[in-house]
Structures are given as C-alpha cells and as structure tokens.
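This section describes the prediction task in plain terms. A model, or a person checking by hand, is given the sequence of a single protein chain and must write out its three-dimensional structure as a string of tokens. No templates, partner chains or ligands are provided. The sample shown here is typical of the held-out split.
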Amino acid sequence: MLRLKCPWCGTRDELEYSYGGESHVTRPGLDASDVEWSDYLFNKENPKGIHYEQWLHKYGCGRWFNVARDTVTHEIYAVYEMGQAKPDIAMTDRD
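The expected answer:
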C-alpha cells in the first residue's frame, strides 16, 4: 500500500486518497479541433519510471495535490501543491 504525504494533513494510507490522473495537462481551448480534443481526452502518458500525478485527499482535507512517483518502485520523489511548477527530477537520482 502506498503512503502519501498530504501537504496539509501529513502522511496517510493510500485508502484516504483518490487518484486523479496525470498532472500538468492543459485543457484545449474552445476553438480546438476534434483531433486536439480527442488527444486530450484519450491519450495519456503511461511511463515506466517517474510520473507526475494528481491526488485528492478524499477522506481528509478534501484538497488536490501533485505527486512525482516512480511507477515501477512506487517511490515518491516529490509531493507539492497544485499550481506549483513540476519539479525537475533527474533519472540519475533513481540509482
């Protein structure tokens, strides 16, 4: 089981959270083409390694935050508030 550290409530079990998908994804504008909307809705990153995700502390403070997590080892590299820039986590930090 994952243990995530909510920026406001501290470390809790994964059961208190809801996964919200990939973070730092920009929604297309109203003038976007059907191809752009399809890409936004259906094509998501699925990396083997570091992935930037959104999580909701559903059974806690009810706030969203971002997590940089390794999808292979489940190691958490960073937890940061929504609106903050994506941290630069070098792949060499994994060794």
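For orientation: The mean pLDDT is 92.
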